[in-house]
Write a structure and sequence with these properties.
Layout: E1 7-14, E2 22-30, E3 41-46, E4 52-56, E5 62-69, E6 71-77, E7 85-92
Antiparallel strand pairs: 1-2, 2-5, 3-4, 3-6, 6-7
Length: 95
């Protein structure tokens, strides 16, 4: 089993609907060579409430986890043969 860190191009963005308190996380998951990783599970956990939202990367390595309440989060990506990637303690805000 290779212990290679999953590289993650993480883009945090807010969805701008009238009077909403929801945000969206989008990104692209790639391996160290830059190749996209399909079907990689993505887990997003609200640090204040412990609520977990999940998704997975598409065949092009892209993922979206939407309808997340404003708050502080931790994002985890795991894929067989790669080291777990954790992006911790980032804040999502409404637009």
């Amino acid at each position: 089993m290779r212990l290679v860190c999953v590289l993650l191009a993480l883009s945090l963005s807010s969805v701008a609907f009238a009077q909403t308190d929801r945000s969206t996380i989008t990104g692209t998951i790639t391996d160290p060579s830059g190749a996209v990783m399909a079907n990689a599970p993505v887990t997003v956990r609200n640090l204040a409430t412990g609520v977990v939202s999940t998704g997975a990367s598409s065949t092009t390595g892209n993922y979206t986890v939407s309808q997340l309440p404003v708050g502080d989060y931790e994002l985890t990506v795991e894929s067989s043969g790669f080291k777990r990637y954790i992006h911790s303690n980032f804040h999502l805000a409404a637009a």
